[in-house]
Structures are given as C-alpha cells and as structure tokens.
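Figure 6 in text form: structure in, sequence out.
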C-alpha cells in the first residue's frame, strides 16, 4: 500500500512506515494513492464480520504484508460483537461499544496495536500518550500484554471520573500510568516535550499511537460494511448512515467504505455545538470557534484533525461535499433526542443520540437510517441518569475493574521528574 503526505505529496511511504510515523512532514496526514474497489459486494455482504474484514483489509494490505499477516491482525483485533439494533420504525443503531473499553475506539486502537506489535522491527517500542479519559482506556487495553510494546499514559490527577481512571490504571504488566498533578494540557505538554527530547525519543523508541494513525481508519472501514450487511438482511434499499463526529475519523472511514463500493445512500455528519463542519457544509466557510464543553464530550473538537482526508476522498472520487449532510445539535436538543429514543424503547447516550436525531432531521419518509452507537450508555452514566431519571447498571467490563487497585505513580507536572521516571521504569 502506498500513501502520500497530503501536505507534501512528494513524501511517499508504505503502510508499515505510515503506521510507525503516524504523521508526515509538517504534521501532514497520510492518504492512500489508490482506493481499492471491491466488485464482489453481494458475496462480501453475506460473509461473517471477521471473514469479510480480512477481505476488505486484504484489498489494502495483502500486497505489502501478505494475506496471512492480515488475517492474523484481524483475528487478534476484532473479537467482539457489533449488533445492529432496531431503535424505532426507520432507525437502527450499530452498537460499536461491546469491546473491552465499551467504545468504538476499541476497533481502531486494537487494530493499530496489533499492527505496531507485528510491524515494528526495532527493539521494544514505547507508546507515550496523554489522555483526558477515554482514549487512554482504549489505547491501554489494546496494547495490554503485547510483547514488543511498553505503554505510558499520562492523565490529570483528579480530573477524570474514578471509573474512567480504573479502566486503564488497574491493568499493570506493560501498561504504566502516571497521575500528573495538573490539567490535561499540562499532560499534553509533557508528552510533547518527551518527543522533543532525543534521549527519550531514541533511547525508548517513542511512538505516539495517535488518533490520526492510518491503521485505525482502515480498521473502522470494516464496521461500516457490517452495518450495511446487517441492514440488507432486512431491507432492499440502501441506508443513510449518521456519524456522531469529533475528529471525523469515523466519517472518513465510512467514506472510504463507500469509495470501495459499499452501497450507502449518503452520510450525515452529526456534531454537538462544536459545529465547525456543519457550518462549513452549509455556509462554505471554514471558521473554527473556541471549543465548548458539552455532555457529548468525546466530540468537543472544533478543529477536526481528519477533515483534510474527508476532502481528499471527495475529490478523488469526483463527489461533492454537498452529498454529505451536516447537522449540529444544542445541549437541549441532545437531551430531547436521548429522551425520545428512550421513550421509543431504546436506551442510548448523548453521542449516538445526536446522530439518531440528525437522521430524523434529514431523512425522507421513504428512507431508513443507521446511526453509529459509539459508546455504551454506562460510560456516560451520570448524564444519562440525570436526563432520563433512571438508573443505568454497569456492564461486566466496568463491574470487574471497580474494586481493583489503581497502580499509577503520582508525579508533578515537571519534565525532569517525568524523564527520570521513564528511564527508571523502562530501561532494559
Ligand atoms: C471519539 C468519539 C467520537 C468521535 O469520533 P471521531 O472519529 O473523532 O469523529 C464520538 N463518540 C464517542 C463516544 C467517541 O469516543
């Protein structure tokens, strides 16, 4: 697979290089030179998820990695259910939250972890990342127990929920967690400083495993196929798919799927009041505003990092941006959407509820739609309980970590202290 840097098209890399580098020169995103098209769609849609995913990812990667390697990566990464659940007469939810950390990020993070573990040829590599909550859990869990990789996660002490903290600080083994006595920005600054320090970068073979890694997007293509496959078992028509969006990786993956030949009527980009994209789609002006905090906090992004890839797909395919609908919901509308789903018999959470409502606002009466369920309702327990006046039980994944001890080391927001800690813990 050949990819090029969207900022410097002359920089070309293989998939293996793109996975390891994350970003290209000047922080440019890697984008495939060629999007493979699958011509056996009916046959593909009839296959079980894992088998189909091997074919989809094989179309991108088999030439470079060999189909056997692709099969192994998929088998190790995709080992949980993703049911399409009927929410009401014309809307379905593809539930992507039955993985180990109860969020759709498990798909991308687990596949990326398998890729790095299998493709990195150096000695051990060290993943260093900062989290304000969810990403830390998905990354830590995805890399837990892998031989060639040590993971260090920094997070702001006391600034994330206890349950969130328990999900990634109780694992041990190759997962090292550091509670920093400051805020998220300070954690990010420490990570940045570590990447700029050549002793750490070279001595510990640092890698960021960040969310714009191309391996994550390829993995996410597979569940868009699964959404349509399950839908087509009940309907003859093609679905509209609504994507709750923050950094727009999820939508990018959907557009790649469509470009590969997946029959999707159109996509709806749904956001909270961080509405840079919906405003851009209706007014044509790219005008990010200051990020505001909302109850769908995983979508609190005003400068979505994957957007250049969305534009690149649209251009490569000769599509128009106007084929994508944009919808932004206020906090009040989000609560109303969540209540409406619940009254119809479907328990959801704020992110998915926004996408569900975006479907209702943009579908014609004859159309059917799928909204992507990106997180388990229990992950947003407080908001869901307050909005619906109900109690939300904890699923087994959260129940088992609840009473485990936190293994984090406490550090001040001080680079020298972090550097000493990294070498003391990870030197070998
Ligand atoms: C990350 C996240 C999103 C946004 O996904 P993007 O790919 O960044 O657009 C939506 N919902 C939840 C629950 C998330 O964790």
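Output sequence:
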């Amino acid at each position: 697979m050949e990819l090029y840097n969207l900022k410097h098209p002359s920089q070309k890399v293989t998939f293996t290089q793109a996975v390891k580098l994350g970003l290209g020169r000047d922080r440019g995103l890697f984008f495939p030179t060629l999007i493979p098209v699958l011509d056996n769609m009916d046959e593909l849609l009839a296959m079980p998820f894992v088998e189909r995913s091997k074919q989809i990812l094989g179309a991108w990667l088999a030439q470079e990695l060999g189909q056997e390697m692709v099969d192994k990566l998929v088998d190790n990464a995709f080992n949980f259910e993703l049911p399409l659940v009927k929410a009401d007469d014309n809307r379905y939810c593809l539930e992507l939250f039955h993985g180990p950390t109860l969020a759709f990020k498990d798909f991308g993070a687990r596949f990326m972890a398998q890729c790095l573990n299998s493709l990195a040829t150096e000695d051990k590599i060290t993943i260093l990342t900062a989290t304000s909550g969810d990403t830390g859990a998905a990354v830590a869990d995805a890399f837990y127990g892998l031989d060639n990789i040590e993971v260090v996660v920094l997070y702001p002490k006391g600034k994330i929920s206890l349950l969130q903290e328990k999900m990634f600080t109780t694992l041990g083994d190759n997962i090292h967690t550091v509670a920093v006595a400051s805020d998220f920005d300070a954690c990010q600054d420490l990570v940045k400083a570590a990447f700029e320090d050549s002793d750490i970068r070279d001595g510990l073979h640092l890698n960021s495993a960040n969310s714009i890694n191309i391996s994550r997007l390829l993995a996410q293509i597979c569940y868009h196929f699964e959404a349509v496959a399950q839908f087509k078992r009940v309907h003859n028509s093609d679905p509209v798919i609504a994507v709750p969006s923050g950094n727009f990786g999820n939508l990018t993956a959907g557009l790649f799927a469509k470009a590969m030949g997946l029959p999707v009527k159109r996509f709806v980009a749904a956001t909270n009041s961080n509405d840079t994209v919906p405003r851009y789609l209706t007014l044509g002006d790219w005008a990010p505003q200051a990020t505001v905090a909302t109850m769908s906090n995983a979508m609190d992004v005003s400068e979505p990092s994957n957007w250049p890839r969305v534009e690149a797909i649209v251009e490569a395919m000769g599509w128009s941006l106007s084929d994508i609908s944009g919808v932004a919901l206020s906090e009040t509308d989000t609560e109303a959407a969540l209540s409406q789903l619940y009254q119809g018999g479907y328990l959801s959470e704020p992110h998915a509820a926004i996408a569900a409502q975006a479907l209702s606002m943009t579908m014609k009466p004859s159309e059917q739609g799928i909204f992507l369920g990106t997180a388990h309702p229990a992950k947003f327990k407080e908001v869901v309980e307050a909005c619906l006046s109900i109690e939300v039980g904890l699923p087994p994944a959260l129940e088992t970590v609840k009473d485990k001890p936190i293994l984090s080391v406490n550090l001040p927001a001080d680079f020298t202290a972090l550097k000493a800690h990294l070498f003391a813990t990870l030197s070998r």
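Caption detail: The pocket of pyridoxal-5'-phosphate is lined by residues 103, 105, 134, 244-250, 298-299, 351, 374-375 (CB under 6 Å).
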